[in-house]
């Protein structure tokens, strides 16, 4: 598990290799990840946007920006954690992701970023 704390928001990531499959005559490598976002501040916050840089050993870096996570904009109370699972398809058996969430402190209305540490993807057969 990889963990990082930014501005009182602790983000932990676990990854898994889900398998391979052919699509459009190309091999794809499926990876899963579970992210836990713990609010270690004294204020309620809401996750409003996400930013990802996706690294694939066989492709250029892909950038993804969007609202919330998996269709939700969770409110995270002080001392509470929001967890979710998602996935990523790569053209190679090795890659990584990093990014950040933009959150809003609900009482003050101030926005801030919480960094998501770089987490790596590696199919077991690709590692020595």
CATH architecture type: Sandwich
Strand content: over 45%
- CATH first level: which class? Mainly Beta
Question: In percent, how helical is the residue content?
Answer: under 10%
Shape estimate: elongated
Rg, nearest Å: 16 Å
Please characterize this protein's 3D structure:
By secondary structure, this protein is mainly β. 0% of the residues lie in helices and 69% in strands. It is built from no helices and 9 strands. The strands form 2 sheets. Strands 4, 5, 6, 8 and 9 form a 5-stranded antiparallel sheet that branches. A hairpin with a 5-residue loop joins strand 8 (94-105) and strand 9 (111-122). It starts with a strand and ends in a 6-residue tail after the last strand. The model has no long low-confidence stretch (mean pLDDT 95). Residues 3-128 form the ApaG domain. InterPro entries: ApaG_domain, ApaG_sf. This is Co2+/Mg2+ efflux protein ApaG.
């Amino acid at each position: 598990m990889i963990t990082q704390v930014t501005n009182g928001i602790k983000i932990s990531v676990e990854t898994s290799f889900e398998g391979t499959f052919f699509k459009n005559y190309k091999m794809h490598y499926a990876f899963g990840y579970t992210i836990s976002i713990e609010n270690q501040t004294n204020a309620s916050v809401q996750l409003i946007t996400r930013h990802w840089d996706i690294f694939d050993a066989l492709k250029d870096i892909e950038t993804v920006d969007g609202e919330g996570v998996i269709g939700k904009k969770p409110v995270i109370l002080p001392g509470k954690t929001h967890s979710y699972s998602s996935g990523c398809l790569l053209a190679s058996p090795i890659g990584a992701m990093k990014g950040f969430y933009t959150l809003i402190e609900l009482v003050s209305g101030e926005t801030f970023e919480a960094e998501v540490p770089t987490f790596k993807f590696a199919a077991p057969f690709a590692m020595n």
